[in-house]
Design a protein that fits this description.
- The chain is about 0% helix and about 45% strand.
- By secondary structure, the chain is an all-beta fold.
- The strands form two sheets. Strands 6-7-1-2-5-8 form a six-stranded antiparallel beta sheet, with no helix packed on it.
- Strand 3 and strand 4 form a beta hairpin.
- The radius of gyration is 15 Å and the shape is globular.
Length: about 90
């Protein structure tokens, strides 16, 4: 099954959080923060959303930083994805 986002939506997959600190200390699961860096899996077509023309500037494969608690989490074929609006993407990681 594939996900095809509509309008200004973007499907992202969160990148795993660091398991060790820079000094080499291994972090337990409850001490890890929710990752904010994600990979773009699919991008909607854009178009007119709420009366405004939306142009999509993201492409699949890019790494981005998304708002921490934004979007809708879904599980497809055992893989967890998050669907967010393009406006919830804060930066592109290069």
């Amino acid at each position: 099954m594939t996900l095809k986002p509509l309008a200004d939506r973007v499907v992202i997959k969160l990148v795993e959080a660091e398991e060790t600190t820079k000094s080499g200390i291994i972090l337990p699961d409850n001490a890890k923060e929710k990752p904010q860096i994600a990979e773009v899996i699919a991008v909607g077509p854009g178009g007119v959303v709420d009366g405004k023309e939306i142009t999509m500037y993201l492409t699949a494969g890019q790494r981005v930083i998304a708002s921490k608690y934004s979007g809708t989490e879904v599980k497809v074929d055992g893989t967890e994805y998050t669907i967010v609006r393009q406006g919830d993407i804060l930066a592109i990681v290069e």
